[in-house]
Amino acid sequence: MEALTREDLQKQQDFQEEIIPHLDSIYNFALRLTADPNDAEDLVQDTIVKAYRFFHSYEKGTNAKAWLFRILKNSYINNYRKKSKQPHQVDYSEVETYYESIRSEQSDTTDLETRMYRDMMDDTLSSALKRIPEDFRTVVMLCDVEGFSYEEIANMLDVPIGTIRSRLHRGRNLLKAQLTEYASHKGYSGE
Length: 191
Fold this sequence. Notes:
Elements: H1 6-18, H2 23-34, H3 37-53, H4 64-84, H5 92-104, H6 109-131, H7 134-145, H8 150-157, H9 161-185
């Protein structure tokens, strides 16, 4: 095994300082995009590998988080294109294990109502986000969930800032309409 050069050691140190602090943020974004923890972990791993491989193109001191989000978004799009060309496959052994675990679960009735409503609200918001088109969902998540500025999002997605503002406005309205409809079905009024 070869000893690391001074440059390699410096690259590792810089990578640790600049990139690693953003792991939680990129995982959360990956989870919102994929809606599956395993796929999100794979996407984050792919992003980190690419970030390390191309770390020489990163300008130290610039917005590392935006740079990572751009890599993640591009990886997600590329993976989506690959998957869309493949037929859907299900591993029966995974389904069987899941089925058996659900059957054997028992719930504590004193905590059931709290858990049910908490999960329902999370599911309601996630479902509402999933139902809006991806271009709008991505901008809403980057701005409202991750806190990126319009300029940063425009840079990440390679679109004009006016398009970001338009997508954000439209995405928020679509999300609001879905959540308002849900609330009215549950008996809540906007007054």
